[in-house]
UniProtKB/TrEMBL annotation, chain A:
One Pfam family in the UniProt entry: SBP_bac_1
Record keywords, A-Z: Signal, Transport
Family: Belongs to the bacterial solute-binding protein 1 family.
Species of origin: Nonomuraea phyllanthi
Record GO cellular component, one term: cell envelope
Protein name stated in the entry: Extracellular solute-binding protein
Coiled coil: none
From TrEMBL, chain B:
Superkingdom of the organism of origin: Bacteria
Similarity annotation: Belongs to the binding-protein-dependent transport system permease family.
Keyword DNA-binding belongs to the record: no
UniProt protein name: ABC transporter permease subunit
Gene3D superfamilies documented for this protein: MetI-like (1.10.3720.10)
UniProt cross-references to CDD domains, sorted A to Z: TM_PBP2
Membrane topology: Multi-pass membrane protein
Parts of the chain that traverse the membrane: 20-41, 79-101, 113-133, 170-194, 215-236, 273-291
Source organism of the structure: Nonomuraea phyllanthi
Subcellular location: Cell membrane
Length: 451, 298
């Protein structure tokens, strides 16, 4: 029997040693810190630009709307092929950006999530520059991280006060008189006196949406969870005012606490238990699609102001388009998004009447001011709102939305603290001071200090 | 001499050939086993968000987790889930296995299929059914409670009931697996043992406690270890059904770990993984030690 060149233990030790040393040396996470890639616009003419791009979008009606709008884009850029895909963006995009595998050329994304992945995205500051002055300040601020813009601002979602016109009329409440949140509480009390079974004001039961709603009320007062330097400003007069108002509404039994448009919510909206829904424009979907018994009885007005003469709206949610730093054809993706957001045929195709929404897309308004002419509506008056001209109400409300600070990368994670504590406040289990102190302590420790 | 012949001669004549034959395994194992392990271990000592420069933070991620109330709460949630699931599953699995081992049982094939069906059904589909059945306002369970005059229960929306409701889903889904494992153990018990016990006048109950349970202890130990791993890694059930709520009451250790990853806090996520590995390893050792057959103990 021949003698082995080396014994087995020696071989295994050597192999493991080589593997470990090689791995430690070669697989260290991260790379040198670099400046984010800046994207430059293609210089070729529309007819000569060619190539193929993969674009991710949400599934559902919005996908169909964009699909039709992309067809218009292809008329302008006939040599660009758009592979438009419906994807569960919330579940997939962040992981795809981190792994760098099968990255799309562009994607739709919530404004609240863009800041968290800025290092994986193209810096679009120079490309947005020509449109900057005409874009809603709120949208610019939420797409900005360290002074650089990472998302192509798409829609603006003004908060509105949705109300039951018939119930207010029978209670003798004039909706035009709801100028402040104190007026709203007074009106709710009046409605409840007339019908004690009502709990007129909707408050949200899901932590994420309740925090989004809270930020709308804060944005209305010109503040947000953090300032431009990322410093927490929850412990402030503005937030205390909101929490105090919620507490008063709860104490007076004026609140229906229900999850957004789930069965319990729809039932109490249709039954007349809920009369006021301070919510974003996208609530317009409810009377059009879900509320069978009260279709035609809902109306929209600007939100009340927190102080007399204050802003009559704040933004609640919103989305933009991002171009990943590892996109294969980022310039072409930019051309598509520029067309959809800043060119009249593009935003008209998105918001105007189409096969999916014969009256037009009425769940948001553009953030590009040339598109926001009250006299030139992109979507039609809505029959489910008694023929009300929602465009005019929304555009005027959108015009009052204050600028905001950039949304911190950890915003979605803070729902575990702030969103949950807002729920406890609505359930009467916490005071405003407790919400502020406990949320601030946890957000600071778990999120800001670890940034 | 042809090239092929030269190759064969080379392989035969060198003493490297055995190592070349086993090399493919080590290459694959190194690439998909060792490399990610070392990578994750290194990552657990760093702060890195998936891009840019990674910063060495020493034991910072571990210290953060070990002093974090949320980390301990997630372990607490998993521990409660373990208590709600594993003892019941072992008992139910054993009962089901004994039932299916009985050759005189009518419709035995049907029962076998019925027990195993949930195990092979996609979890997400079942989770959606759970959401509907246990809905507070329109769920079947509350409807039935209302029929007998009982009030609605927030099965998935109250901190008191969310864990038992999720545990029930897990039990329903995986008890078929427990039955398979224990049935296999049961079928390895020689029939003569039972015949001898019967001749000695042992009742069925005595046979169960004195023969069945001791002789399937090894299978039970295996089941406990496997299900301990599964419960502490439980992710899809709370992710789909409750999203970890209400108020974090169903944020299991697996889901808490995932939250670090989605927040791009990859270093903390890696550190959390290693802490979980240590914990589950320790729990498995304890389970095996407690459940090992008496002859092995002696």
């Amino acid at each position: 029997m021949s003698t082995p060149l080396m014994n087995r233990r020696g071989f295994l030790k050597g192999a493991l040693g080589v593997a470990a040393a090689g791995s430690l040396a070669a697989c260290a996470p991260g790379g040198p810190s670099t400046q984010p890639s800046k994207l430059a616009a293609p210089t070729a003419s529309a007819s000569s630009v060619k190539g193929e791009i993969t674009i991710w979008n949400r599934s559902g009606d919005l996908f169909k709307v964009f699909d039709a709008a992309i067809a218009k884009f292809r008329e302008a850029y006939p040599n660009v092929t758009v592979n438009h895909q419906a994807v569960d963006i919330d579940a997939k995009l962040a992981n795809t950006l981190i792994s760098g595998t099968d990255v799309p050329d562009g994607s739709f994304w919530d404004d609240a999530k863009i800041g968290g992945q800025a290092e994986h995205l193209y810096d679009l500051t120079d490309l947005i520059a020509p449109y900057r002055e005409q874009t809603a300040p709120y949208k610019l601020s939420v797409n900005t991280v360290d002074g650089k813009i990472y998302g192509v601002p798409w829609d603006l979602d003004p908060g509105l006060l949705w109300y039951r016109e018939d119930i207010l009329e029978s209670a003798g409440v004039d909706p035009a008189g709801l100028a402040t949140y104190d007026d709203l509480l007074a009106a709710a009390r009046t409605v409840k006196e007339k019908d004690p079974t009502t709990r007129p004001i909707h408050m949200e039961k899901t932590p994420f949406l309740s925090q989004l709603w809270l930020e709308m009320l804060a944005n209305q007062q010109g503040t947000s969870l953090t300032d431009a330097q990322g410093k927490l400003r929850l412990d402030s007069e503005e937030y205390r005012r909101i929490f105090g108002w919620i507490q008063n509404a709860v104490k007076d039994d004026l609140v229906t606490h229900a999850p957004y448009l789930e069965a319990a919510d729809v039932k109490t909206l249709d039954s007349g238990q809920q009369v006021f829904v301070p919510w974003a424009i996208w609530w317009s979907f409810a009377p059009q699609q879900l509320l069978k018994a009260t279709k035609g009885k809902w109306r929209a007005a600007p939100l009340p102001a927190w102080t007399p003469g204050g802003a009559r709206s704040g933004a609640m949610g919103g989305s933009s388009f991002v171009i990943p730093a590892k996109a294969k054809n980022p310039e072409l993706a930019w051309l598509l998004y520029e067309f959809l957001c800043f060119k009249e045929p593009g935003y008209t195709a998105v918001y105007g009447p189409n096969d999916v929404y014969p009256g037009g897309l009425s769940t948001s308004v553009p953030s590009f001011s040339p598109a926001l002419d009250p006299a030139k509506p992109l979507f039609q008056p809505i029959e489910a709102l008694g023929g009300q001209d929602l465009w005019k109400v929304a555009v005027e409300a959108a015009g009052t939305i204050p600028a905001a600070a950039p949304i911190p990368w950890w915003w979605a994670q803070s729902v575990d603290y702030l969103g949950n504590n807002v729920q406890r406040l609505i359930e009467g289990k916490m005071t405003p001071d407790q919400v502020i102190s406990e949320s601030a302590e946890k957000i600071q420790r778990n999120l800001i200090d670890r940034s | 001499m042809s090239l092929a012949r030269l190759d064969r001669t080379f392989l035969r004549s060198t003493r490297l050939s055995p190592y070349l034959f086993i090399a493919p395994f080590f290459v694959v194992f190194g690439a998909f086993g060792i490399y990610p392990l070392i990578y994750a271990l290194q990552l657990s000592f760093m702060r890195w968000r998936g891009a840019g420069e990674a910063h060495w933070v020493g034991a910072g991620n571990y210290l953060y987790l070990l002093t974090s109330p949320e980390f301990w709460a997630s372990l607490g949630n998993s521990a409660v889930m373990w208590l709600l699931i594993v003892p019941i599953q072992v008992m139910a699995g054993l009962g089901g296995a004994v039932l299916l081992a009985n050759a005189k049982l009518r419709l035995r094939g049907l029962f076998r299929v019925a027990f195993i069906a949930p195990f092979v059904t996609p979890l997400v589909a079942m989770a959606q059914v759970w959401i509907v059945v246990f809905d507070q306002d329109y769920g079947l369970v509350n409807y039935l409670l209302n029929l007998v005059g009982l009030p609605d229960v927030g099965w998935l929306t109250s901190t008191a009931w969310s864990k038992p409701t999720l545990a029930l889903l897990f039990l329903w889904k995986t008890t078929g697996f427990a039955i398979i494992i224990l049935l296999a153990g049961l079928q390895a018990v020689p029939g003569g043992v039972y015949e001898a016990a019967a001749l000695d006048g042992a009742s069925r109950w005595r046979q169960f406690w004195s023969i069945t349970v001791p002789l399937v202890r090894r299978s039970m130990a295996f089941l406990v270890v496997v299900q301990t791993l599964a419960v502490f890694q439980m992710f899809a059930e709370p992710f789909v059904v409750t999203e970890g709520g209400p108020y974090g009451s169903t944020t299991t250790a697996g889901l808490y770990l995932y939250e670090h990853i989605t927040a791009s806090d990859l270093g903390t996520g890696a550190a959390n993984s290693f802490l979980l590995v240590l914990l589950v390893f320790g729990l498995s050792l304890v389970s095996v030690r407690l459940l090992r057959p008496k002859d092995e103990v002696s």
